[in-house]
């Protein structure tokens, strides 16, 4: 699956389903979504469930680290890594 597709789907899910106050425009891949308040702890677990269901990968407890979810680009890299490993 192309990197852009994963990034687009993650961005849409975050903006439509988990952001308490979504920005008017989609955030850039390097935008700090946790620090900016777009992704909180409940949203993180919704996002993990979405990733696992959408991409048929497993997010292990060790994967749930700030650096893996700090930006959409970091989340995309995590997903791409999981897809490459499967």
Describe this structure in words.
This protein has 86 residues and is mainly alpha-helical. The chain has a single domain, classed as ACP-like (Non-ribosomal Peptide Synthetase Peptidyl Carrier Protein, Chain A, Orthogonal Bundle). The chain has helices spanning 3-18, 41-55, 66-69, 72-85. Helix 1 (3-18) packs across helix 2 (41-55) and helix 1 packs across helix 4 (72-85). The longest helix has 16 residues, at 3-18. The protein is globular. The mean pLDDT is 92.
Give me a quick take on this structure:
This protein has helices spanning 3-18, 41-55, 66-69, 72-85. The protein is mainly α and 86 residues long.
**What percent of residues adopt helix (DSSP H or I)?**
55-70%
Give the count of structural domains. 1
Sequence stretches where pLDDT stays below 50 over 5 or more residues: none
Q: What is the distance, rounded to the nearest whole angstrom, between the alpha carbons of the first and last residues?
A: 13 Å
Calculate the mean pLDDT score and round it: 92
Q: Structural class of the secondary structure composition?
A: mainly alpha
Tell me, what's the shape?
globular
CATH architectural type: Orthogonal Bundle
Radius of gyration: 12 Å
Describe the biggest sheet? Answer: none
**Percentage of residues in DSSP E strands:** under 5%
Q: Helical element count?
A: 4
What is the CATH homologous superfamily assignment?
A: ACP-like
């Amino acid at each position: 699956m192309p990197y852009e597709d994963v990034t687009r789907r993650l961005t849409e899910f975050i903006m439509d389903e988990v952001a308490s106050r979504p920005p008017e425009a989609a955030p850039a891949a390097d935008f700090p979504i946790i620090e900016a308040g777009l992704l909180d702890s409940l949203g993180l677990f919704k996002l993990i469930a979405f990733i696992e269901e959408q991409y048929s990968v497993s997010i292990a407890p060790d994967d749930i680290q700030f650096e893996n979810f700090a930006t959409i680009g970091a989340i995309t890299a995590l997903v791409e890594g999981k897809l490459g490993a499967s």
